[in-house]
Amino acid sequence: MSKASFVNFNDKTIWITGASSGIGKAMALRFSRLGANLILSSRDSTALQLVKSSCDHPDKVFVLEMDLLKAGDMKQLVVKAMSFFGAIDILINNAGISQRSLASKTLLEVDRKIFDINYFGTIALTKALLPFFIDKKQGHIVTITSVVGKIGTPWRSSYSASKHALHGFFDSIRAELFKDNIDITLICPGFVKTNVSINALTADGKEQGTMDEATAKGLNPDLFAKKAIRSIYKKRQEVVIGGALEVFAIYVKRYFPLLLSKMLTKVKVT
Fold it and tell me: pTM higher than 0.90 for the full model?
């Protein structure tokens, strides 16, 4: 019997944001194979319907359109999400946007937009759902951050900062919610072959429109999803999932920070 066969989410209700493509889509498809009830969210309801139809059990999937820029909508969306299956067991905060621009050239409004999506939108949704988790003394919040949430790299200043902020927030509430039996998992992807670099914002707020070479050579999203789901099943507090170079960089940062600083000055940024 394979290790994967021990991972069972049968009839667990899982809400995934950013589920229309990439990591979110790959996780949705895998969770469906494992018997989960799914709520899939993003701004693109048409793409979400296609993901739903690709799931093994589309009858156990609901689509809920969401825009993280509209933080004021989160309480209403949580109420609607709860109505689908009567409860939510796991929230996966996956939606977000990346950046490819020099800090000195990036408009402040672009910096703010990145934070409004990646940080404020994510914590608004989390805070809206928390009362339900606290009331039943059970729940699991999974947030997809990034290796750059641990290491700041060139051309990703505000993206990196928003991911660092997520680590600060979720590490803090992990301690606050311990007594309520609520688990927090932070998953830090390295390079994964998705549209993240294509959709990344440039200095003036326009999308980059091309895929970075490193992203094109990144992990297959399905492989990432397999590893991530195993970590969620084990309720890991934090895990890095990426290539050898990204994982190695985390350890260099910890033990040889000056060396990493020198290495980063020579990084090919796109």
Answer: yes
